[in-house]
Amino acid sequence: MLDQSWPKSSVPLKNVEIILTRAKHQIESTAQHFEALGAEVIRASTIGIEEPPPPEDSIYQRGTWMIPKVGLGRMLWRFDWVIFTSVNAVKYADKAWRKCGLKGALRYRPKNVDTHKIRAIRVACIGESTQSALNRLGVQVDLIPSVYHAEGLIDAFDREILDNKRILIPRALVARELLPKALRVRGADVWITPLYQTTSNMLSVEVKRQMIQPLEPGKKRALLFTSDSTLNRLLEQLTPPEIECLKRICKVFVIGPVIKRSVLREGFKVSIVAEPHTIKALIESVINFFQQEEA
Q: Beta strands of 70-120 (E only): which ranges?
């Protein structure tokens, strides 16, 4: 639950317009949170989620260290670790397991295989939301970093012996390669299963107009980014003058240090980085920022 220490008779964001760029399937719950706080929400979802390419696609050749999602269930017994970096990865992994007819997939044991060849699977993840999603599926998490990004998980693995360990990372087709590369350097055999891919969601002319229209007297506008994808797909759809307008009139809030670096690189100023790096903390940071401005 969000901190509701503000006066019950008021709404802390009544003069604030919030531009949300999250994925289409995630944006509504966040929008409703902000609307309950009095904000006017501009739903500017810049990304969508789709199925990955078919298994016969060339990206799945062995040299790319990728396993098609059809192998996610039946090959689990070969791995020592499975790493989930997002709620989407958990969601689509569960979908893939169900399609294979597997229940309790992380406890899957094949028939006609010597017991000594079956590895005891451990689970690592990034973020409280990802852990909660796994727990709801009955999966216990063995390792979670205190800092919710890939760098934090790499540091958490410092305490583990990774030589000759096999690690599977179910994830998006295109993602940062920092984590698998770092684990391979430490001796692990890392494989990736692409479960979904991020696509562009086209913004309407009306949404673009709302984003860059002049502020009314007493109004403020906030622009929120939760991933590099949301930033990149937004910039692809705007003209340079429109981007400069956003930079001039919007306060920018980001969910963590990775997206902060990207936003700064594009010339935006960042007002707040959520701490911890969660949607809940991001919403709280917006509330606190504008309350302090009003004080």
A: 81-84
The Cα 249–Cα 107 span in angstroms is 52
Find the mean pLDDT for residues 250-256. Answer: 97
User: 40: exposed, middle or buried (C-beta count within 10 Å: 0-12, 13-18, 19+)?
Assistant: middle
The predicted-structure confidence for 24-65, as pLDDT tens digits, reads as follows 888 999 999 999 999 999 999 999 998 888 877 777 665 568
DSSP tag of 160? S
Length of the chain: 295
Cβ pair 79, 205 in contact under 8 A: no
Structure tokens at 271: 């007002």
Model confidence, pTM: 0.83
Q: What angle do CA 93, 59, 63 make, to 5 degrees?
A: 105
| Strands across the sheet containing 40-43 | 40-43, 16-20, 220-225, 250-254, 270-273
Q: What confidence tens digit (pLDDT) does each residue in 156-177 have?
A: 999 999 999 999 999 999 888 9
| Every domain of the chain and the residues it spans | 51-199
The CATH number fitting domain 51-199, selected from 3.40.630.30, 2.10.109.10, 3.40.50.10090, 3.40.720.10: 3.40.50.10090
**Phi-psi domain of 266 (left: phi exceeds 0; alpha: psi -120 through 50; beta: other):** alpha
